[in-house]
Fold this sequence. Notes:
- The chain is mostly helical.
- It has 2 domains: 14-61, no CATH class; 65-276, MetI-like fold (Orthogonal Bundle), CATH 1.10.3720.10.
- Helices cover 72% and strands 1% of the residues.
- It has helices at residues 14-41, 62-70, 73-104, 110-122, 125-139, 145-169, 173-181, 186-197, 199-214, 218-223, 231-236, 246-266, 268-276, and strands at residues 239-240, 243-244.
- It has a two-stranded antiparallel ribbon with strand order 1-2.
- A hairpin with a 2-residue loop joins strand 1 and strand 2 (243-244).
- Helix 6 runs antiparallel to helix 9.
Amino acid sequence: MDAGLGGGSLEVKPLSVLVHVVLILICVALMLPILYMILTAFKPKMLAVLIPPVWIFSPTLDNFERLFTGTEFLNGFKNSIIIAAVSVPIATIISAMAGYALDRWDFWGKETVALLFLAVWMFPAIALVIPLFMIHQALGLLNTHIGIILVYIYGEAGLAIWLMRTYFSAIPREIDEAARLDGHSAFGAFFKVILPLNRSGVASTALILLMLIWNDFLVAYILTRSAVRPLIPVIAGFIGFHGVDIGLMTAAGFLSSLPVLVIALLIQKELVKGFTFGAIR
């Protein structure tokens, strides 16, 4: 295909066009359920259940009004904020220190310890939740914020430790030595030099922890009751014996997804760096 400017030519490769078309179709397929959820959240109650769905309608806030006045949504939202705001930073910093130690320090059984961290995280939650229930009941931690926070910290840290270990491995060890020569202690070198260099890895790990903790259902459902129950089990309670209130479910789903989405958008530059950090050394 000849181009009109400068006598050059623009070659269109069929394979490239096909790849782009496939990617666009995949994006549309991924976004369609989200779009349907958002639209349904603003539909009148009677239109929300129609099949095939109605795409053109007069938006209403009735579903959100019922959500705020007739359910425990706000209490669940508050509990999720408290739990995530405490557990994510603590789990992130503990995982950063453990990941750094596993990468930098050489000791007997190092790889076994690393595998144990990952194995704990990979163990099915359904197999652990009953022992956790009994332990928390014996310790008086059942149905408390501190109880569920502790579970999330030691339950999700295994994956975070492996992620942080990978991120720290991309930072040359010579930087540690230079920091020590500058007079920093081991902790000073870590917190003042190495950790700031790995802020992209910390940001991406923290976001993954936030998503895991924010979206958890099983552990939160078993270990909490209405007073401290997080958001996801509260939303699941909208499914009753007489069916599902589609309007409430979609309105709650829309609002519950906003905090993680907003945080991801705020740190998107660090996320891009973090997800590619260490790929090219």
